[in-house]
Amino acid sequence: MTSQTVEDHSRTPYQLPFPADALAEIVVPQAIPEDERAWVPQADNVWFRPLCLNRSQGYWVNLLRVRKSGVLSRHRHPQAVHGFVLKGRWRYLEHDWVAETGAYVFEAPGETHTLVVPEDVDEMITLFQVNGVMCYVDPWGEVTGYEDVFTKIDLCRKHYSAVGLGAEFVDEFIR
Ligand code: FE
């Protein structure tokens, strides 16, 4: 009987270097931050917290926080959006469904919507991946402004600089 040992490699880490040009991972221990300064004001009662600002592929992943009476202005998405509701409840003026804690939402290219939080909800927090650009529009679709990963980065730099975290605080989220 041979005593050949078959080694079990199921828990052996990958042994080779990663590609030399691969970007570093991002790990955000407190995605929902204890430090209030990490939230970047966007409108009255609306803030975002960057997690991944992907300038190399033109998308961003952030937490959106909206408190009572906050409205995320009407905007059109030429590309898909993915959302996961972490806290609270919200809806779009353009749809009859309500997104509640635990819900996943796929927003198809071509969506135009206005996000509102019901009166009885103190706060909602939702993780969104937004691809490309969002175009702010009037009720008839005329574009009044836009946001993309670069305007997001600019907003972060200005805010983090103003609150004392330093403009470079945003760098850890950029790839
Ligand atoms: Fe949207």
Secondary structure layout:
Blueprint: E1 40-43, E2 46-54, E3 59-67, E4 71-76, E5 81-87, E6 89-92, E7 98-100, E8 104-107, E9 112-116, E10 123-131, E11 133-137, E12 143-148, H1 149-162
Antiparallel strand pairs: 1-2, 2-3, 3-10, 4-9, 4-11, 5-8, 5-10, 6-7, 6-9, 11-12
Fe (iii) ion (FE) binds at residues 75, 77, 81, 113, 134.
What does this structure look like?
- This protein has 175 residues and is mainly beta.
- The chain has a single domain (36-173), classed as Jelly Rolls, CATH 2.60.120.
- It is built from one helix and twelve strands; from the N terminus they run ββββββββββββα.
- The strands form two sheets. It has a six-stranded antiparallel β-sheet with strand order 1-2-3-10-5-8, covered by helices on one side. A six-stranded antiparallel β-sheet has the order 7-6-9-4-11-12.
- A hairpin with a 4-residue loop joins strand 2 and strand 3.
- The protein is globular.
- The structure holds fe (iii) ion.
- The site of fe (iii) ion has 5 residues, from loops.
The quaternary organization reads as: single chain
What is the terminal-to-terminal distance? 56 Å
CATH domain class name:
Mainly Beta
Present as ligands are:
fe (iii) ion
State the domain count: 1
Radius of gyration (CA) equals 20 Å
Q: Describe the strand arrangement of the main beta sheet, using strand numbers.
A: 1-2-3-10-5-8
Number of strands: 12
Going by CATH, the architecture would be: Sandwich
Overall geometry comes to globular
